């Protein structure tokens, strides 16, 4: 990356990278989330998260485990291993992660392993091995493919040979060698520290900007704490602070009612009024220098809104030439690129991938929009990279732009230093600064940790020393803070709270008169949208947010409960009636005719697995599979339209085993998994097994974060995900 930067941009013209804050923080009580302690705060919690993940990964170690080796060359082999729990991200493994293999000697004929002390097989004496069962070789393998549906990893192992693995010792003489060889292995999953490097490296950059804003001499009342306070006029040097700690001083005031007309024709004619208002507000840039937040509950079209925003900005807004669009994961980023693809040519849209990502993960239709060099994904040449109108990548892979020094700050500094070098007697250019990156759009922002979101934020951040910008970069985030939080190993870390959720809790959003949470909920009345602007409210801060309210996914009866519990009765059912009413005639419903919601009380007791201590409920599993079978047999729904979920992994394993058994026939098409695996997905019918739903368990499970019953924190988010996946049928067993 440094070579790329040196070749594309003269290294001597680049600004110095700030040094990290090396001060040790021994306790979280010593620090708080504030502009002054921002770097220390997140550095401490990142280190704590890594430590917790190391403990968690140690519990996933496999001993005496079988692997299948296939030689690729005389110096490299491929090993395939089965990893229990891989489907549920336990362990969490990605392409190119490190997996350590320690081979164990064993007799291929008997399958027996020599004793460490006696070096004897029982009952057969083998050759004597001075080191016992170990070959004394540790292989650092790299993951080349993650096959989650079948829970298998394909590993690339350099230096693994037939001689080194002692395969020939067990091979019968005078017989040809087979292409595959079975090995016995001890397997460990080290924490990939490089996954955290971008977050650790961006923190000093962010802290430098925050510190500069705090030290500004003309700041009337700088922000000092999490809550924020009124402050003086803002300039480009306060941009980072305004993005992370926005206050009323960063917002614009609306004094008049708008006419309600849209200045720009939509690329997507199916947009509703809330979606169009969001796009219009963002393109008008009339709300101040703060992040614009799109609150998109399930099925309300937040990604569609973000795509329209990108197209409008790049085509119809002056001085917007280049946009960075990110999402927390590769699949979500692929979805964004795929939706943009029909309207942009390969020289206009880049799907930027890290070099270690596998080609099989990317859809064929997207490959023309990726840059490939030496048979791997790569960064395009500098002049080509600068020409793309839109770059789509994951939040983490946005670090490629940071490391290659093509951030707004770096590019601006190079431009200024080059001008001074060529014209040493001239003053600095008098014209307004034109930055390369004009906007950052983040989808599914509530699933990204705050340090992850900082990486693309820093890429588009204006240089702090520039006081006059032709166009101030925009930041737009779309997400739902009431669904699953960012995935972490530690259950109670502050990293669970995304930047999106933290911003929405700040007074400038949460206390705005048009905030969703201020809707007066009444269970006896139909749902209603959030408050609307009235002339009597003026003057008012222009809202830097939009609440999406039209749900295009679920039947009104399915939508009613999550709308009341999580969204203050603001969700309006907008699903197409023929689709939403597909199961109205099913005989299994017990409530009002045509209401496709059923709650089945399950009296059977919960049980605990003997080996790995997971909770499951046999009676509940039987009921769930029975309902799935009845639904499929009705002919009203296909097996692939039904899913069964549970928050407990042991129950998921039992459900899969039971559903695939002969007792329930062909239910292989039914999707069965843990609740969190269904985030972002939808199914025609959802069968939810709550497991451990008895009153006496609720308090303890709430403390441990188990299950979906009890409310609060991640349990509430899981329940919301479970209830909002269904389109036309919901069965809850518990």
UniProtKB/TrEMBL annotation:
<dbReference type="InterPro" id="IPR047187">
    <property type="entry name" value="SF1_C_Upf1"/>
</dbReference>
<dbReference type="Pfam" id="PF13086">
    <property type="entry name" value="AAA_11"/>
</dbReference>
<dbReference type="GO" id="GO:0004386">
    <property type="term" value="F:helicase activity"/>
</dbReference>
<dbReference type="InterPro" id="IPR041679">
    <property type="entry name" value="DNA2/NAM7-like_C"/>
</dbReference>
<dbReference type="InterPro" id="IPR041677">
    <property type="entry name" value="DNA2/NAM7_AAA_11"/>
</dbReference>
<dbReference type="GO" id="GO:0005829">
    <property type="term" value="C:cytosol"/>
</dbReference>
<feature type="domain" description="DNA2/NAM7 helicase helicase">
    <location>
        <begin position="271"/>
        <end position="342"/>
    </location>
</feature>
<feature type="domain" description="DNA2/NAM7 helicase-like C-terminal">
    <location>
        <begin position="545"/>
        <end position="734"/>
    </location>
</feature>
<dbReference type="Pfam" id="PF13087">
    <property type="entry name" value="AAA_12"/>
</dbReference>
<keyword id="KW-0547">Nucleotide-binding</keyword>
<dbReference type="InterPro" id="IPR027417">
    <property type="entry name" value="P-loop_NTPase"/>
</dbReference>
<dbReference type="GO" id="GO:0016787">
    <property type="term" value="F:hydrolase activity"/>
</dbReference>
<dbReference type="GO" id="GO:0035194">
    <property type="term" value="P:regulatory ncRNA-mediated post-transcriptional gene silencing"/>
</dbReference>
<dbReference type="InterPro" id="IPR045055">
    <property type="entry name" value="DNA2/NAM7-like"/>
</dbReference>
<protein>
    <submittedName>
        <fullName>P-loop containing nucleoside triphosphate hydrolase protein</fullName>
    </submittedName>
</protein>
<keyword id="KW-0378">Hydrolase</keyword>
<keyword id="KW-0067">ATP-binding</keyword>
<keyword id="KW-0347">Helicase</keyword>
């Amino acid at each position: 990356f440094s070579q790329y930067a040196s070749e594309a941009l003269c290294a001597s013209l680049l600004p110095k990278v700030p040094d990290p804050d090396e001060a040790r923080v021994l306790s979280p009580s010593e620090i708080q989330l504030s502009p002054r302690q921002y770097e220390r705060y997140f550095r401490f919690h990142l280190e704590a998260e890594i430590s917790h993940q190391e403990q968690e990964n140690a519990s996933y170690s496999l001993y005496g485990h079988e692997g299948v080796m296939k030689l690729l060359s005389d110096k490299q082999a491929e090993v395939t291993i089965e990893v229990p729990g891989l489907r549920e991200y336990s362990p969490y493994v990605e392409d190119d992660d490190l997996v350590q293999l320690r081979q164990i000697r064993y007799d291929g004929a008997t399958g027996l392993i020599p004793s460490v002390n006696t070096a004897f097989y029982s009952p057969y004496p083998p050759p004597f091995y001075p080191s016992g069962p170990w070959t004394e070789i540790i292989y650092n393998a790299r993951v080349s493919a993650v096959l989650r549906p079948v829970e298998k990893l394909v590993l690339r192992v350099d230096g693994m040979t037939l001689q080194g693995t002692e395969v020939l010792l067990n091979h019968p003489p005078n017989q040809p060698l087979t292409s595959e060889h079975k090995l016995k292995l001890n397997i460990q999953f080290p924490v990939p520290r490089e996954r955290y490097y971008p977050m650790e490296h961006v923190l000093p950059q962010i802290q430098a900007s925050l510190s500069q804003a705090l030290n500004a001499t003309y700041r009337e009342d700088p922000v000092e704490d999490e809550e924020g306070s009124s402050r003086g006029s803002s300039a480009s040097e306060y941009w980072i602070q305004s993005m992370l700690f926005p206050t009323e001083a960063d917002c614009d005031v609306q004094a008049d009612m708008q006419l309600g007309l849209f200045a720009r024709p939509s690329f997507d004619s199916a947009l509703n009024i809330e979606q169009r208002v969001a796009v219009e507000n963002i393109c008008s840039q009339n709300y101040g220098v703060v992040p614009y937040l799109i609150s998109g509950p399930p099925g309300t079209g937040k990604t569609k809104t973000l795509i329209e925003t990108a197209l409008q900005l790049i085509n119809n807004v002056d001085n917007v030439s280049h946009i960075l669009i990110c999402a927390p994961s590769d699949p979500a980023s692929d979805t964004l690129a795929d939706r943009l693809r029909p309207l942009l040519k390969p020289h206009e849209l880049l799907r930027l991938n890290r070099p270690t990502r596998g080609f099989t993960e990317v859809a064929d239709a997207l490959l023309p929009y990726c840059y490939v060099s030496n048979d791997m994904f790569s960064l395009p040449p500098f002049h080509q990279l600068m020409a793309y109108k839109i770059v789509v990548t994951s939040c983490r892979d946005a670090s490629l732009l940071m490391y290659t020094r093509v951030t707004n700050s770096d590019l601006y500094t190079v431009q200024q230093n080059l001008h001074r070098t060529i014209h040493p007697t001239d003053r600095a250019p008098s014209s307004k600064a034109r930055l390369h990156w004009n906007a950052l759009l983040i989808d599914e922002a509530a699933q990204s940790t705050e340090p992850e979101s900082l990486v693309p934020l820093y890429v588009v951040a204006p240089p702090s020393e520039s006081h006059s910008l032709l166009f101030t970069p925009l930041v737009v985030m779309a997400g739902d803070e009431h669904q699953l939080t960012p995935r972490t190993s530690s259950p109670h870390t502050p990293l669970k709270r995304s930047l999106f959720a933290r911003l929405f809790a700040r007074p400038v959003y949460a206390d705005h008169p048009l905030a969703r949470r201020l809707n007066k909920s009444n269970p006896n009345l139909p749902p209603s949208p959030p408050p609307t602007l009235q002339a009597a409210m003026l003057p008012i801060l222009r809202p830097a947010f939009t609440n999406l309210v039209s749900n295009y996914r679920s039947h009104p009866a399915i939508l009613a409960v999550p709308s009341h519990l999580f969204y203050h009765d603001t969700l309006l059912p907008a699903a197409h009636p023929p689709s939403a009413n597909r199961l109205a005639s099913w005989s299994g419903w017990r409530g009002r005719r045509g209401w496709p919601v059923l709650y089945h009380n399950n009296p059977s007791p919960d049980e605990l697995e003997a080996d790995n201590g997971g909770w499951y409920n046999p009676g509940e599993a039987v009921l769930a599979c029975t309902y799935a079978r009845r639904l499929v047999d009705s002919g009203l729904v296909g097996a692939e339209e039904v899913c069964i979920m549970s928050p407990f992994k042991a129950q998921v394993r039992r459900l899969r085993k039971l559903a695939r058994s002969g007792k329930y026939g062909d239910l292989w098409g039914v999707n069965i998994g843990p609740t969190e695996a269904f985030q972002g997905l939808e199914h025609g019918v959802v069968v939810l097994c709550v497991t451990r739903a008895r009153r006496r368990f609720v308090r303890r499970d709430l403390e441990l974060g188990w299950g979906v019953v009890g409310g609060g924190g991640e349990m509430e988010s899981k329940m919301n995900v479970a209830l909002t996946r269904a389109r036309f049928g919901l069965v809850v067993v518990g």
